């Protein structure tokens, strides 16, 4: 990861994308009651290259589950994950999609465990950019939601605004994720 390697630096984080979590879904009648019960189970999760999958593997590592040895079925679409659990292809499904989780719980499914929160959608800049220019960009981005013109721009791109973020916290999370 370029942030970890010191080639880039955090400018801002996107509001609404700072609490991204992988949630481990189980059927309502599952015998699993705690995270340790997932050892030896079959998992269904999004594409291996997705941020959800990266968070899932880091969380599994924390739980003592070797994702390289676990039986993992992947799908391109997070909304397909519940299908795996409902139809017996997986014992545990993993998704970070709010609508998927909500629908799962409305149908009686359970969330057994959730990962650490990870901010996604960072705005970064080269470390070659001057501190003065970086601060100008940061100030501009942080002020977008405070004017009508800025709010119109944000509406066009579907964001609520930006926040400063904590570069040290981001570095710790990057290390945890294996970046």
Biggest sheet record: 5 strands, mixed
**Number of contiguous helices:** 6
Strand order of the largest sheet: 4-3-5-2-6
Rounded radius of gyration (Å): 19 Å
**Poorly predicted segments:** none
Mean pLDDT: 93
The share of residues in extended strands comes to 15-25%
Determine the N-to-C terminus distance.
Answer: 5 Å
Percent helix: 25-40%
Rough outline:
elongated
H and E order? EEEHEHEHEEHHEH
| Count of distinct strands | 8
Structural class computed from helices and strand pairing: alpha/beta
Mind explaining what this structure looks like?
- The protein has 179 residues and is α/β, with parallel strands linked by helices.
- The protein is built from six helices and eight strands.
- The strands form two sheets. A five-stranded mixed β-sheet has the order 4-3-5-2-6, with helices on both faces.
- α1 links the parallel β3 and β4.
- The longest helix has 13 residues, at 131-143.
- The termini are close together.
- The mean pLDDT is 93.
């Amino acid at each position: 990861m370029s942030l970890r390697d010191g080639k880039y630096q955090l400018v801002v984080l996107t509001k609404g994308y700072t609490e991204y979590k992988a949630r481990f879904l189980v059927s309502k009648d599952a015998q699993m009651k705690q995270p340790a019960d997932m050892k030896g189970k079959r998992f269904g999760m999004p594409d291996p290259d997705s941020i959800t999958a990266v968070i899932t593997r880091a969380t599994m590592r924390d739980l003592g589950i070797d994702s390289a040895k676990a039986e993992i079925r992947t799908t391109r679409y997070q909304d397909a994950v519940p299908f795996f659990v409902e139809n017996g292809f997986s014992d545990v499904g993993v998704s970070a999609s709010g609508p998927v989780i909500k629908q799962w719980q409305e149908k009686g499914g359970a969330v057994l465990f959730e990962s650490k929160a990870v901010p996604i959608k960072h705005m970064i800049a080269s470390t070659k950019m001057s501190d003065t220019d970086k601060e100008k960009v940061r100030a501009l981005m942080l002020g977008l939601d405070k004017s009508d013109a800025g709010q119109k721009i944000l509406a066009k791109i579907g964001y609520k605004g930006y926040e400063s973020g904590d570069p040290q916290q981001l570095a710790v999370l990057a290390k945890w994720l294996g970046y």
